[in-house]
Amino acid sequence: MEISYWEAGEGEPLVFVPGWSANGAEYINVMYLLSQDYHFYVIDPRNQGLSQLVEYGGRISRFSMDLKELSDHLKLGKANYAGWSMGASVLWGFIDLFGTSRIDKAVFVDEPISIYSHQNWSEQERQDAGGTTTSPERMVEGFTNGKPLNALVTDLVPWERSPLMDSSYYKNSTSFAQHFIKNDSNAVGRNMHQHKIDIPVAIF
């Protein structure tokens, strides 16, 4: 299994873990900014970006192990870590498996408690949990195979917003990523199906 990563800058190490379907090419502006102060790394999760496409390992615990193996490969004794969206779950898994002895500081960005919105939730419960879809399977089908979506299936705002490129920074990084990275939608889809936690958890 081959995992790719992006690297820039010198100094204190900072490892960034993107979310579902994302890759390092989309973070070239962030990489440029943070590489002024950090030795900045961005991992391409398996089945995303330039990493190997495989039929197996689509679980948070395996992504967390990939992160650990990358940090071993880079000989990072201790580093700062940041996870965005699904990458935040990967970082939580990393902590669950290996503790915090190798982490100096951790940052968690934009991770909902549950993207799934249960039918018996009130609107306030849905908002508190960050639930955006009543059918993760149909949401993934919409992303990977262009199946039709509607507001009863998932929050359409991200789908409507993502193609807009009215920010010069966004246009710059998105244009670069789209020309340089050719995601396999079926491989990316495999990365969303095994992320269920069936025990109570506390989020602070």
Q: How large is the radius of gyration?
A: 17 Å
The CATH topology of the domain at 5-111 and 164-190 turns out to be Rossmann fold
β-strand percent reads 5-15%
pLDDT < 50 stretches: 197-204
Helical fraction equals: 25-40%
Q: Major sheet: order of its strands?
A: 1-3-2-4-5
What spatial form do the alpha-carbon principal axes imply?
globular
State mean pLDDT (0 to 100 scale): 84
Largest sheet, in brief, is: 5 strands, mixed
Q: Give the name of the CATH superfamily of the domain at 5-111 and 164-190.
A: Alpha/Beta hydrolase fold, catalytic domain
Distance between the termini: 35 Å
Question: Which class best fits the helix and strand makeup?
Answer: alpha/beta
Would you identify the CATH architecture of the domain at 5-111 and 164-190? Answer: 3-Layer(aba) Sandwich
Number of helices: 8
Let me know the number of strands. Answer: 5
**H/E order of the elements?**
EEHEHEHEHHHHH
What is the CATH top level name of the domain at 5-111 and 164-190?
A: Alpha Beta
Characteristic key phrases:
single chain, 204 residues, alpha/beta, Rossmann fold, five-stranded mixed beta sheet, 14% strand, disordered C terminus
